[in-house]
């Protein structure tokens, strides 16, 4: 028996840093990944899909987002089981109980809306742990494990949340306790645990049966989310009494959010950054955050600004990571000698250069003024 384990679709997600027309493309890509599970299922012979929480970004979605998401799920063609997570819990405002969702929910989609056992077919069960609020007061999974027998029935636990071994705050009541999961696996009551919440693909513990699938489309930068963009195809041998499991990742995401860290201390460094950005493929589906440190002349800083402006227009987004960037701008000797100006204007430039070499807000303003002067001079205006 094979099935697809996925999670954290977060349909309806927005990213504030995306360029205006990039946000609709990103939203469409998240739905396209969902619809594309039809091909993954066909290629692998998967019997059903489990979505381990956070199907939607939140419960207050635009009707268009709900309808388009349900249509994408309909297109998968095989049974799809949805677990409410912390983004879309089964609370009073739940999207899953809305009139629109209940009216348009396809026949192949089932919401795992109660804790405990859901029968897929004879001999195969899902054990669900849905979130009923954004702040559970206990481990959402432990309660559904306690009374499960080791009776030969194939059981897949579907849960959502942080596992205690990965979280510094061990007193958080909603943490999933790894020991309880491993105990259920060890005694043969559970054969695979499908988790959501982490957006990177990750094995949990040493059993080989507990996994985060990660988000099928990237949601954050690669220094935070190192391995997104997958779904897991899980094969369970139901004929073997031990129910051995094989887990295979399938790359489905097409977007990339990346962080570039560079030192920039000369015009050569700026040119190298330009080359690196130019070589990146799929710019319309790539988001770049740059962390830059160094010391540049006013001329080289103007060239850097022009470089960043250019690629901000080409990528889905390109931003300077202010908290991790520190560029000192210091006018070089003779940098403004060949502007072809004299008299009061030349004296004003000399004063700006002196101010720019100091510290404080006045220095920042002086550097900005000198950079503008250089740009105007390059255009034949000054």
From TrEMBL:
- Give a GO molecular function annotation for the protein: exonuclease activity
Q: What's a Pfam family in this record?
A: Metallophos
Point out the coiled-coil segments of this chain. none
For this UniProt record, the keywords arranged alphabetically read as follows:
Exonuclease, Hydrolase, Nuclease
| Residue stretches making up the Calcineurin-like phosphoesterase domain | 1-169
Recorded hits in Gene3D superfamilies, A to Z, give: 3.60.21.10
CDD domains in the cross-refs: MPP_Mre11_N (cd00840)
* Annotated family: Belongs to the SbcD family.
Q: What is this protein called?
A: Nuclease SbcCD subunit D
Identify the taxonomic lineage of the organism of origin. Answer: Bacteria, Bacillati, Actinomycetota, Actinomycetes, Mycobacteriales
């Amino acid at each position: 028996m094979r099935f697809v384990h996925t999670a954290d679709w977060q349909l309806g997600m927005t990213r504030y840093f995306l360029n205006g027309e990039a946000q609709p493309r990103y939203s469409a890509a998240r739905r396209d990944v969902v619809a594309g599970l039809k091909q993954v299922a066909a290629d692998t012979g998967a019997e059903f899909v489990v979505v381990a929480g956070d199907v939607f970004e939140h419960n207050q979605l635009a009707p268009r987002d709900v309808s388009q998401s349900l249509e994408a799920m309909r297109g998968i063609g095989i049974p799809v089981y949805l677990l409410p997570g912390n983004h879309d819990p089964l609370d009073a405002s739940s999207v899953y109980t809305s009139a629109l969702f209940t009216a348009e929910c396809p026949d192949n989609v089932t919401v795992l809306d109660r804790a405990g056992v859901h029968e897929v077919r004879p001999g195969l069960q899902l054990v669900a742990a849905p979130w009923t609020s954004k702040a559970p007061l206990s481990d959402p999974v432990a309660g559904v494990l306690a009374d499960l027998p080791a009776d030969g029935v194939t059981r897949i636990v579907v849960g959502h949340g942080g596992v205690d071994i990965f979280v510094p705050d061990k007193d958080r009541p909603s943490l999933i306790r790894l020991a309880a999961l491993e105990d259920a696996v060890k005694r043969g009551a559970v054969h695979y645990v499908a988790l959501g919440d982490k957006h990177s693909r990750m094995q949990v513990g040493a059993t080989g049966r507990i996994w985060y699938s990660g988000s099928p489309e990237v949601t954050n930068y690669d220094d935070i989310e190192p391995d997104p963009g997958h779904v897991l195809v899980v094969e369970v041998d139901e004929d073997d009494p031990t129910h051995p499991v094989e887990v295979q990742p399938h790359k489905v995401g097409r977007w990339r959010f990346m962080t570039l860290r560079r030192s920039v201390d000369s015009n050569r460094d700026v040119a190298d950054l330009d080359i690196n950005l130019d070589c990146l493929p799929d710019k319309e589906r790539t988001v770049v955050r740059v962390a830059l440190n160094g010391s540049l002349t006013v001329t080289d800083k103007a060239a850097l600004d022009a470089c960043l402006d250019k690629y901000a227009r080409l990528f889905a987004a390109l931003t300077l990571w202010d908290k991790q960037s520190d560029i000192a701008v210091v006018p070089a000797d003779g940098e403004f000698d060949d502007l072809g100006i004299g008299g009061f204007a030349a004296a004003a430039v000399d004063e700006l250069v002196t101010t720019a070499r100091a510290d404080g807000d006045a220095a920042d303003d002086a550097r900005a003024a000198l950079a503008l002067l250089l740009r105007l001079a390059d255009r034949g205006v000054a």
